[in-house]
Amino acid sequence: MSRSKLIEIAKANLAHARAGTINQTENIYQVPAEHYFDHDRWQQEMKQIFKRVPLLMATTAELPASGDWKALTAANVPILLSRTESGEVKAFFNMCSHRGAQIMPEGRGNSHRFTCPYHAWSYNSEGELTSIYSNKDFGDLDKQCHSLTELPCLERAGLIWVTLNRNTTLSIEDFLCNYDEMLGQFDFANWHYFAHQTIKGPNWKIAYDGYLDLYHLPILHKDTFGPDYPNKANYYNWGPHQRVTGPDISLSQYEELDESLWPTGHLLNGVWTIFPHISIASFDGGGRAIMLSQLFPGETPATSYTVQHYLMEKAPSEEQVEAARAQFDFLKYVVQEEDYATGIKQQVALESGGKDYVMFGRNEGGGQRFHQWVDRLIATSDKDLPALFTNND
Length: 393
Fold this sequence. Notes:
The chain is of the alpha+beta class.
């Protein structure tokens, strides 16, 4: 079904290319300017969105083997991911049961034991407490009752989601709205993890607006890659998750072929966004590759940071390593010096009070939908949260 959906979208994009049209919303949409800087609003977003919906924490390619682990902080919550002996991925608070110290440093590694640097309490890859330093002196304690605190976690389509609320009523499967079936067409579980890098940005929504926006490409990126791309976009959604692609006349070359022969790589072109903080952009040069941008709010409403992950369909040759590194450096430059530099100045302008709202045109349906989902989640109670995704439009 997911491949047939890709074909359906490709045919729609080809039809739009021939007609010189795009899908448009009914109206221009306004978003209050203060939504980008108001502290109370920002705290609501942290509580109602980042602390409630599943977040993409890692790729399968980062933890391919038993004993692999990854530690990171998301929305000020320290997380530890572990590939267990059975091959399952589990997620825990990166927090010792003894006195709450963070057990593993941020980064990745391989170990079949997690040992707290404070008092050397140790846990296995399943999160079970296996050893208490100087146990006789410490006192009697039932180790089985003091494992690491586990969080909801799901590995699907070569990607790993975690919910920061251990008592959530929202299943990760429902949250994905079958979007994982589409992402499964990439076959990320078998891709090669190349590198990552981190850049600082403006308010997380300013940054995310850019990932949904093809309108700016020929203008803001006129000196880099912009002239090669049109400013027109079509948006396809699965709940809050969206794929952004443009009308594509080059798809006409496949019309005489059986649909089973249409190349998957071409069918997956464009930007795939995963609400509320992921963008996946695909490339084809020196081997098929993607950049997965993992966006997190910063310490204040005006700040964010993005971890850019570069994955390749196959492990690169020596020549391809150089090409991939050059491309990854180029992508960092474009986002940091063009997108986010503009966004940081935009942040300052919005806070000046010069305008009461910003606008998203009829051609910017992706941004409209994103902000509507932000508003919707802020207004939805915990008990009504599952229905928001199972009854999504």
